[in-house]
Amino acid sequence: MLRRSFAAGLSLFAAFPLSVFAQSDAEKKFDLIIIDIGVAGLSTAVSAAQSGVKNTLLIDKAAFVGGHSALSGGSVNAVDPEVQMKQGIKDSPELWFRQIMEAGEFQSDPILVNTLVNNAHSTLHWLREIGIPFDDQVFEAWGGKFQRAHSAGQKRNGMTYVRIMNQKARSLGVKVRLRTEAVSLLENNGQVIGVRVKTREGKLEDLQAKDIVIATGGFTANVPMRLKYDERLDASLFTTANPTGRGFDGSTGDGILLAEKTGAQTVDMEAIQLIPLRGGRLLNYVGGDIFVDSSGKRFVDESKGVKAIGEAYLNLPDRVFWVITDSQSQKSLDLDAKLLSGTVRMADSVAEMAKKMHVSPKVLQETLDRYNKFAELGEDKDFGKKIFTQKIDKPPFYFGREQFDIHYSCGGLKINKKCQVIGKESKPIPNLYAVGEVTGGIHGRDRLGGDSLISCFVFGKIAGEEIAKKQKDLK
């Protein structure tokens, strides 16, 4: 999932009618309160309302709806035989299940993964019925491992999803309060009965509800919390939602911290995903570029997955690495923009490139010569790379510094397949649910590209249905 800077999120105000932001602070009791308004929270709200929940409130500490979802490129994985077969693609929930388990290093909860892969197709149809105009073409999301990703064909698909689902929720009578921060969960005899909030006026207010859903996203923007689980993820690293560090990123782990105070369990908290998005990398395939450190030497097998390359990057003493390709490779569409901004530069010789990189020409030439020899042999004796599409020896050379930003927290609150938050003695905490990036267990140690949003949609839909069923049974 590609996220853009906070500046992109400001256009949300122009995307929604003013009625979307209407707020009524008079009510204190609700059937359902959902904390945070990304696609996970909106999916829950729409599903619950469609299933019979009458009085739902969505709250968000931000002044706008959407969260990280609105900044997403919007790849949505789902096995869809009718669409995929038209492109000659054979897929199955079983294949997807195996790929998720492998990517997560077999740390994922198989029950949750099974729930995801077997409900994605019906959820996709549900989203189409709501009005999301998914294309008839599928593709392989970056890091997705297979052609099963869907999108609405827009530059900012995430914003499209948020806008359409928010309008649907409002049409179903769902209420919204913005600039309303959840401070703590209210409990009585071991049951969650509501949430204490700080209003936009700064006052504390207790809101009661039969059920509470936490949909607050991850903790990628909470530096102390990151450091608790990985001491390398310090403040020098920014997030993909706020790559300059000067904007707003609401993923500060609020929901996890709230639930932990009620005894909630967490899983996979150390599994934090980094990705390189905005530097010198120009290729969307493996085999046509090399990565070198600040001395001009290779430090990793470039065909490794993002997680392995990220680990190698974090272990570089100065966290500096360059991406180099040449005139033979097939560049991505952002080449001109990166050349214009100076993110990527060109050189007519290795010596010229080395000078601009401030590395030894001799070392850089030796690095390229050794790599090109490996490319001829089809065997990398230094790092074990096996995928080569070319040598890198035809000027002009294209090069630029790359960097990793923190993108996604795979870990979070432990849930079951009904989206109930698991507490002490591995039992559900009564009336407390969680959906989206705030949860753990689905992705294990690493997440496939395209699996984030569909997880929000699938489990949001399930949570809404389960809450409606429970409330009907209690009447």
Structural summary, described in words:
Helix content is 32%, strand content 20%. It is α/β, with parallel strands linked by helices and 475 residues long. The strands form five sheets. Strands 1, 2, 6, 7, 8, 9, 18 and 19 form an eight-stranded mixed beta sheet that branches. A four-stranded antiparallel beta sheet has the order 12-13-15-14. A three-stranded antiparallel beta sheet has the order 3-5-4. Residues 1-23 have low confidence and may be disordered.
Name the poorly predicted regions. 1-23
Intertermini distance = 41 Å
Number of strands: 20
What integer value in Å does the Rg equal?
A: 23 Å
Strand content: 15-25%
Largest sheet: 8 strands, mixed
Class inferred from helices and paired strands: alpha/beta
- The percent range for helix content is 25-40%
Estimate the global geometry from the Cα principal axes.
elongated
Q: Mean pLDDT across all residues, rounded?
A: 92
How large is the count of helical segments?
Answer: 14
